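User: Need the bound-state model for pyridoxal-5'-phosphate:
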Amino acid sequence: MERLTPRVGIGQIAPHKPMIRLPNGGRPLIDLSLSHNALGPSPRSITAYRQAAQNLHRYPDGEHTALRMAIARRYDIEPDHVTCSNGSDEMIQIVTEAYAGPGDEVLFHQYGYHGFIKAARMTGATPVIAAERDLAVDVEALAELAGDRTKIVFLANPNNPTGSYVPAEQVQRLRAELPAHTLLVLDSAYADYVRRNNYDPGFDLVSDHDNVLMVRTFSKLHGLAGLRIGWAYGPPAIIETLDRVRPLYNVGLPAQAAAAAALGDLEHEEATLAHNDSWSAWLSHELRAIGVRVYPSVCNFILVRIPPDPTMSVPTLSQHLLDHGILVKSLGHYGLPDCMRITIGTEEENHALMDALREVLD
Ligand SMILES: Cc1ncc(COP(=O)(O)O)c(C=O)c1O
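Assistant: Bound-state model below.
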């Protein structure tokens, strides 16, 4: 009898690693390992979430109408050019399922967000990986690898975990060099944090092409990672395709309400950005002062390289931090064994991190 086996590619997906959530001597654990918003969600989102609790017996709006309208108003786009998902991770999966399958190629960059390779494997498509240069995307390398079989190119801009970004002019060049049958997916999860004049999250590129999609999330700037809400902006034909593929009730009722409310709280957004700007600069400065290499980041986290020292590897350092109740992200699985990703925390968390690091690195 034939053995039961999962589809081709599934066995190559890395299994989820259990998250460490150790008690920290009665104190809350300082979790700088995921790119959470240090200030938490907007109070308006919390109120909307609580109000939605009255209606938990109802299915959510399968068309995400109010949320799409709120997104459209905020970004001055058409609501029918938008669809929503259970986190932007789900959108990455939906778009890959819709456009790629066995025999097709899904192209992305070397240190690109790990959701891309997973989505490619899930659909049975072949992942193709373009080398980066000095932890930044090389658009020429991406364009060179695109061919007849390339159905999707994913560009995380800015990228996680590197924190680097691709200037708008290079993204336009990439689109021009890709085949017309290739969908360019701009994963702009951290777009809101970027303070650079030559950056563009992708609105214009989407409106000017029939083969570009921009994917966004409420997990970062809006501090709603726990509710799982993502969205995509694209040409109506692509949005209609994604809507066919996605589960009808993919975004929960409280999630839709909290996300729509978040868009009305510009004060919270500004506070988040101001906090990130000042503490990212502070942390980078303090880390460099103790000999840690800090890569320039336009996100709410920074990528650091630990100086070579036989007694202080990333696992040893991570354990030392864990002993102080602090979690950071090791990047061995990204092929960066001497690097860590550190999220910008609250003032107290950032100081706790530096105090713990100075004990062993100063
Ligand atoms: C570049 C990038 N894209 C997408 C995601 C997925 O975010 P979410 O599913 O929370 O919207 C993340 C999460 O860290 C990310 O870093």
